[in-house]
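Box 3.1. Reading complex inputs
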Amino acid sequence: MVHPLIAAIEKHGPLTEDEKAVLRDISDDVVTFAAKTDLVRPGDECAYSTLLLDGVAARYSTFADGQRQISALHVTGDFVDLHSFLLKKMDDGVMALSPCRAARVAHKDLLEISGRYPYLTRAFWLMTLIDGAISRHLTAAIGRRSARQRVAHILCEMHCRLGNMGLVRNGGFDFPATQEELGDMLGLSTVHVNRTLQELRSDGLIATSGRHIEIHDWDRLAEEAEFDATYLHSYQQLER
Amino acid sequence: MVHPLIAAIEKHGPLTEDEKAVLRDISDDVVTFAAKTDLVRPGDECAYSTLLLDGVAARYSTFADGQRQISALHVTGDFVDLHSFLLKKMDDGVMALSPCRAARVAHKDLLEISGRYPYLTRAFWLMTLIDGAISRHLTAAIGRRSARQRVAHILCEMHCRLGNMGLVRNGGFDFPATQEELGDMLGLSTVHVNRTLQELRSDGLIATSGRHIEIHDWDRLAEEAEFDATYLHSYQQLER
DNA sequence: CGGGGCATTGAGTTGAGTCAACAACCGTGG
DNA sequence: CCACGGTTGTTGACTCAACTCAATGCCCCG
């Protein structure tokens, strides 16, 4: 099987055998997590970053009154907390939405790479920049778009991101977030997410069965969401 | 005068003379911008990134219906679009809120640095990670907090960030955003921003005169906003 | 077969938006 | 030095998208 990290990075340009070997080397400490458990606890100061090999995870923060906001979603191939390499202290946590498999990558290995492999360093940096671009889009959606557009947008985004990793089969994909989690991500109440999904279903844009989602009318969905995948920078090429 | 970029980076750890010289070298192409003009136009593919030397700027994106969302604020010492070094295509624009002075740093210089100066590379990377952390906090605030808390939060954040660069005098600072811009940043209407500011004023938390803001009761303001400055990572130390 | 998550529904409430004036301020040119 | 026009700030009246609360239904898993 292709290594998810190598696959993710090679979307941006080819790696040398040497570089691939390094990536395999640093990611051989594999752990698993049950759904609803923390991959990273809020406030942790880890000596490693966590690479998601399988499953879907969410970065979240919690307020004093118990309200929660999910600020990012991560899928196979994503480094869920690569930023902790330089920021050290996580100001939020990362939770498994589905059962997850992940590799722990030691910060000292990343430090070593950043001195010896400039191209890999830029690739890692790029991954965090793409995270940031996605986060800014989420901010914009929450700040200015209707509930319907927000839901449509996240479905489009997930379709693309999972599709990139080969996890979409004829317009359908598994998306393990509950309606409550979707609400926490989109700044909506559970009830309103429910009603919005019903609307999208009855308008024939999507179909859901359990946690499986099928997009029936991509064009209309993308149009309503004003979705334009360039912000995902999936194939942004990196210079050597 | 101390170079703003060197000052910003040295908050995270000392630089060698050699590194400082490099930073000065790459940032000698200085340009000025009037308020309300674009430092970077949406969709630009620049060959350089823009370092803000003076003034306040905002990253924004616009929707088809004319709605605007401001996704980040930048102050002296910030690289407003360092991410364009690797992402190339800007999916949003950056606008001067006040008159600005900025240096254009060629991407080829950054590429060179990323091969030769690992520490500077990590420092630049760190700057973009801090941007991301701030952006996630904004997402959380917009998604889950009341108008009053959002406004209070942004005032706390600006107080800290401007304070870091020595731009606060006894609790007061210049913050050039109009109420409309504040609304576009916080996902609120202009009218509601206005009413919220009035509330904060009449509750004795802040005072405003023109674009100058004074914080009269920092403790209560920070408490209401649940503000905790650690996410700014202002003094996060970098390993050599 | 029973319990715990989730999803769904209905009814009533509200924070924030919209629209439309109007006032205050500011730079500019005559 | 003042008149003017544009931008920004303020106010009031009304509306509505989304929230809350509280049931109820559903389904999966042990």
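In summary: Chain B touches chain A through 51 residues (CB under 8 Å).
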